[in-house]
Amino acid sequence: MTSLATLDAALARLDTSLTAALGQQWFAPGLTDAQIDELLRPSGLQPPAEVRAYLRRHDGVAPTSRVLAPWLIGHWLPLSLREALAERDVRRGMAREEFGGEPGDADGVWGPGWLPLFRAGNGYVLAVDCHADPAPDGGTAVLRTARVTPAPPSVSSLAELFEFFTLALSTGAWSWDDGRQRWLFDRSRLTDHPLAHVL
To answer: Which of 57, 85, 118, 175 is the 20 to 30 Å CA partner of 163?
Structure first.
């Protein structure tokens, strides 16, 4: 069964890999449970245990005024909880506009429980469903969405997602070019991995 200790260990390995790749890791300090509850109160969302544990350890990246690629993990920008909730509002607004429906109609396109945690420059996000029942192993399944349409990437938990990030960094599939200030990608190093061309 996925445990919070497993998640914490996966995050520790990711922190180490990011420090090796960038010279430091850019995660912002985490939130207290009281801060998480206060930010979530208007949305009514109740995050799964894995998500809450992640937010207690990290809340996006610092500084929040970042403009350069080092704040990314490969393609993915970690969102603070405040940014995640704002992104959720934007996506639900896009869903209403795209289908010309009433506010409640967004539920069928951008699920009311979906909370984005990572955003890519091409518009994709990685989100979790706060309304879904926990998986049998206790993990929180990750959704990959393009605009408003979900495309599950077969990631069963946040711990599994962070382990893939670490694998991509440690194998050189994702590497940081300090001279050009950009990430480089060599997916041939992970040819047989099912997530290599998804994330």
So the answer is: 85
Buried b / exposed e along 132-147 (16+ C-beta atoms within 10 A): eeeeeebbbbbbbbee
Residue type, 95: A
- Give the residue among 168, 160, 165, 123 at the shortest CA–CA distance from 144: 123
Asked whether the beta carbons of 36 and 47 are under 8 A apart, the reply is yes
Q: What is the mean pLDDT of residues 107-124?
A: 83
Instruction: Read off the DSSP letter of residue 167.
Output: H
Check the CA dihedral 67-72-75-77 and report its sign: negative
CA distance 28 to 192: 33
Is 59 within 8 Å of 30 (Cβ atoms)? Answer: yes
Local structure of 45: helix, strand or coil: coil
3-state secondary structure 60-93: EECCCCCCCHHHCECCEEECCHHHHHHHHHHHHH
Report how far residue 166's alpha carbon sits from residue 168's, in angstroms, rounded to the nearest whole number.
Answer: 5
pTM: 0.88
**Res. 112 pLDDT band, cuts 50 70 90:** confident
- Quickly count: other Cβ atoms within 10 Å of residue 121's Cβ: 10
> 87, 79 in Cβ contact below 8 A?
yes
